[in-house]
Every structure is written in structure tokens, then in C-alpha cells.
Amino acid sequence: MYLGLKVLQELQDSRVTARKSELQDLFQRCHNFMSVACCEIKKSWKDLLCEPWYHVEARYAARQSPAASAGEDHQFSAGISSYLHHLYGSGEVDVVVVGGGVLGCSSLYHLAKLGVTNTILLEAHELTAGTTWHTAGLMSTMGRSETDYSLRNTTLNMLRRLEEETGVSPGLIENGSVYISSTRKGQAVRKDEFARWVTFMRVLGCECELITLSQLKDLYPLVDTSDINAVVHVREGGQMDPAGTCEGLTRWAMKQGARVVKCCPVTDIRTTETLLGGRRVSEVHTNQGVIKTNAVINATGSWGNYITSMVGVTLPLQSFRHGYVVTEGVEGLLGMPVLRDLVSSAYLKAQGDSAVIGYFEPNPEPIDQIRRNFPFGLYEMNWDIYGPIHEQIIQRIPILENVGIKSTIVGPESFTPRWSGNYG
Length: 424
Prior knowledge:
Layout: H1 2-11, H2 20-38, H3 45-49, H4 53-63, H5 66-69, H6 80-88, E1 95-98, H7 102-113, E2 119-122, E3 138-139, H8 146-166, E4 177-182, H9 190-204, E5 208-210, H10 213-219, E6 228-234, E7 238-239, H11 242-255, E8 259-261, E9 266-273, E10 279-286, E11 289-292, E12 296-298, H12 304-308, E13 318-329, E14 338-341, E15 346-351, E16 354-359, E17 365-367, H13 383-396, E18 405-415
Parallel strand pairs: 1-2, 1-12, 2-8, 4-14
Antiparallel strand pairs: 3-7, 4-6, 5-6, 9-10, 10-11, 13-16, 13-17, 13-18, 14-15, 15-16
Helix pairs in contact: 1-2, 1-4, 7-11, 8-11
């Protein structure tokens, strides 16, 4: 069994060319033995060559477990412990990505794009758990710096080609965005700020422009423009589906050789001392085995400090309760751009014929210590915080006054002191 699997591994290694015919013959003989011994491989060797070899090995390990012999139904995850122990007991991976949200999946994908495929993503629960599963999925290239724009533009281009690469739709809808400012709360100064912002973004390549109120009315008839003094229209981007994006990103990375293991929380990270007195990652311990590596990407968001505490590091990260509502159907909303009201600190997007109204709370509720086991958890909506913002959005889109609310979503979201990502 082991010999057959190692031959299969070699056959799937793109570097093997000259010995392929010899290896195929050897694998056929091994397959004959495995078919009798395991009674589980019912595919031809040609089919097996198209299947990741570690999937076959994991299923074999699962069948050797006591539970399997007792007749229990086992999926791929049942064999992960033996799989990790065998695969990484004496080997290494180049990078371990911790966290199966959109950042972790994107990290795995981009590593593969760079040719780094000896990688593994570890997710304590299921992909999208944590924050990604309930995020609103907004996608705009309008940033505040050259780096910010570059990251956003790279993401948009990735989403545009993802379905072609993987067959999985990321749910990208390029309905664009409109950013509005108003004289409400004495914010008239924003008109000049918008002009500078647009000039800077256009230099970087962003497809944006200042538009007039009549143009806004043509673009978004539902908006009350009585107090608006500045409008930016971003023609590219709009919104996407986080779950479909995660599936597409991991599917492509796995085709290149990367691995994804779910229900596998990290329990410890071991380090060794370098010659210069620093520390370097040496091992990642999980509930299903130990992985040797010198690089870890912490993509766990609000749970980031649980991971960094294993090596004595604290991240400048604070989690808050962050929310939005989904309304009943809104006539005329379908196809409208994403609306971002910077004075009200709110956004509105179409979701089918419903509206998703999200809030950036001026006095958010901090989460002192997020629970470790809170993968798909939500909180109650505090209308004392969200109510005033919601009222301002109703003033901006008057038709919402007679539209009911179907559901409320308040989940954990992490923020840094500068409202941007922590890298490095």
C-alpha cells in the first residue's frame, strides 16, 4: 500500500517525465494488490492519477482506525491524524496558513501563484468560519493610499478570473459604487476632500469620477439628493460572495499541490533560537499531528492573538460587534450601485430584491475577549447604537421607511488602530 502511494505521488510530480512509463507499470501492479487488500479502491489507475494522492492515503488511514472496523461511516477528515503523522513526521512544509477565512484562502492561492505549493491551510472549523461567513462582501477599488489601491485592484482582477480558473463563481457583481457626502452635520468641507481623493485615485488607475446630482439621480433614482454636496462614482467593482470566493481560491491552490485541512485547530507553535539570538518557527502542533515548518501566516482575524500568544506576541487588534440588517424587498433597488454614505457612516447594497444596510458605529461595542470556540456565532443587535444610523439611511432612501427588516446580523469584526491591515 505504502509503495503504491509513493509511486502515485511520484507520478503526480510534474518533475517526473523520463520514468513515467516505468512508474505507471509499477503502480498497476501495486494497484492490483491494493484492490485485494483494501477492497476500497475501485477506480482504474488512470482515475487515480487524477486524484490527489494524499486523499487516497487519508482514506486508507481512516479505514484502518478502530471506528472504521466497527462499521462507522468515515469521511476524509477521519484519516487526517494518521495522514498528518505520516506525511509530516519526518518532512516539512514551506508555509502553514492558519485560518480558513477569505484572508487565509487568498494567502494559500497567492502562494501557489508564486510557485510555493508545499503549503497547508489549517482551519479549526469549516472554511469561512469566524467573520467571513457573515461579511457583506463589498468590493471597491477606492482606497486611501497607493498600497491600499494596489491590494484592492489586485483582488478585483483575481475575482474577475477566478471562475475561469476554477469553475467556481465568486459572485462578483460589477455594479460599481457611489460615495456621497452632504451638508448634514456641517460636513460641507468634504467636497474639496472628494476632489483631491478622486484626483489621487485616478492617477493610480482607479475608474472613478466626481459626478453631478443630476447624474446621481439618473444612476440611483431612489436617493434623496436635497443635502448632498459631493458624489464620487466608481465604475469598477461592487460586491462579491465570500463563500464562493473561498471555495474557488482553495480549489485552485489545491490543484497546484497545496493542502487544506478542516476541523484541525492549532494548539501550539514551537520555535528555535537562531544564531543571532532571535526565534524562528520550527513546528506547528495541532489536535491531529505535528507539522514542521519555518513559516506561519496568521490569518485568523479576531482570533489572531490566540495564535500569536503561542510565541509570546500581542497584536494591536481590537474586536467589536459589527452589524447590518437585511430588509424585505425594495422596489427599484435591483441593479443599483453600492451606496456609501460617509456622513451617516453606513452603506447599502442590493441582495436580490432586498437591501443590506450596514453600519460603521460611532460608538461600537468592544469585545473584551472573544470566545475561542465561536465559529458561526452572532450577537443581538443593540438598536440604541444602530437605530440612529438606520434613521439617517431612511432619510437618504425614503422608500425604506415602509420596508420591513427580515434579519439582523451582528458578528465579531477586528480592527487595527489605523483601520488597515497588519502585515509583516
